[in-house]
Amino acid sequence: MTRAWAASRTTAGAAARTVPARAGSVFGSRAAAAAFDAACASPLVRGHLRTLARLEAAEAAEVHQWQVSRLARFHRLWGRSVPYYRAHPEYLQACLQGRLDELPVLGKETVRGLAGSFSSPRVPARRVTTGGTGGRPLDLRISYASFFTEWAHIAHVWGRAGVRPTDPKITFRGGSLGAGFAGQPILFQPTYNHFLVSPFHLSDRTFADLLDRLGDFRPVAVWGYPSAVTPFAHWVARTGPHRALSRVRAVLLASEGAFDWQVALFREVFSAPVVRWYGQSEKVVFAGECPCRPGAYHLAPTYGLTEVVDGRIVGTGMTNAAMPLVRYDTEDAGTLLPPGSRGARCVCGSSFPVLTDVRGRWDQSLVYGADDEPISTAALNFHDGAFAVFDRFQFHQERRGEVELRVAAARPPAASDLARARHLLQERVGDRLRVSVAVVPPETLLSVRGKGVTVDQRYRPGPATEMSRNV
Ligand SMILES: [Zn+2]
Fold this sequence. Notes:
Layout: E1 3-4, H1 30-41, H2 43-57, H3 60-77, H4 83-87, H5 89-97, H6 108-113, E2 125-131, E3 137-143, H7 144-159, E4 169-172, E5 186-189, E6 194-197, H8 204-214, E7 221-224, H9 226-239, E8 250-253, E9 258-259, H10 260-270, E10 274-278, E11 287-289, E12 297-299, E13 304-309, E14 312-317, E15 328-337, E16 354-359, E17 366-368, E18 374-376, E19 392-397, E20 402-408, H11 415-429, E21 434-439, E22 455-457, H12 463-467
Parallel strand pairs: 4-6, 4-7, 7-8, 8-10, 19-22, 20-21
Antiparallel strand pairs: 1-9, 2-3, 5-6, 10-11, 11-12, 12-16, 13-14, 14-15, 15-16, 17-18, 19-20
Helix pairs in contact: 2-7, 3-5, 9-10
Bound molecules: zinc ion.
Zinc ion binds at residues 290, 292-293, 298, 346, 348, 350.
InterPro entries: ANL_N_sf (IPR042099), CapK_Type1_Caps_Biosynth (IPR053158)
Organism: Candidatus Protofrankia datiscae
């Protein structure tokens, strides 16, 4: 199973432009709205977009030179006040001279253990806690300016598909946009210029209601978690085409990996390209998928310096002054390529280097076999159309050697569909796992923020197996 990536944890949306006739009077949080308005118009965002456009057209050597001097400036300004780098002056030296490969790679455990030592006390920031290795939380500090730089990079990627942040959209995602749903599955948020649909209320009735409420509003993009867009895409395939969706020109996938069959489904149902990007809460690497080469992600040089060390994506961030991480191991895997076949330029015209074969922490989700052996869910290949009949699915494990595939669909799946999925999985895992299949309500397969969760692991294997987790 190839999972491509779209990971962005910032909020996003649009300044109010079009208020549809039936928009109602529900507004999102004023603070989020004001921040977003400011972001769209901010000189910082516009400056970043200009730099990205200029560098993307420049020669690769020039881009590299720009990065080296940017990194030196960034650390001259901010690195000096970070306690960890004061105690280890070789970091500052290396950043000022652009010789990162002499430094050790910084692991997540080190950062977790010494969280405060990586923060600059001079930079105003908000605290963010994110899931780290083995689900253990990692405390991060994110500068307020990062909100703007993040938006600039997202806008750059969306722009490749002709979508501006202020364009009308339908959005399927959870509570990170500054408003609760308060029992209503559909909200119009003028700030973001979108109809926001709760990932916890995806039903035929909600979708019919959504299209009814669109009125004269003509979305140009569908944006959201792949797991939440999937039920809508299935519904559109059954009930469409709908005139209200005729102007959709891109599907923007946020915050989760997407399965290949999901990408194919979205392309077909919405007759539009799928736009994905890769990033992480630690803000060291950002890459947008090439419009001409699916699975190839162009690294944004303005965001950070990216290396691949022993197969792992390692990044040195240049946007989050509150916690500048140097040679940080993202724990994601990938391959780094020059932009074009001869180090020149990609077919899309970009001179930015390319990340391929990106495999993330989500792919490393494990289930445990009859002898406690770890089995990556990546090995349970989902290319087969047998799984496309479900809107969502999740592996649930409570006991050694047993796993339940929990599935949800707007229309109850046929017994033959369930039997087929079970048979395919059982064939793949042989006698290592006993597979069962159960139909469950869709909302039980989501995290508290409404994202899909591929593995709900309740079983803990013995310590010897834990050791082999990172092999
Ligand atoms: Zn390209």
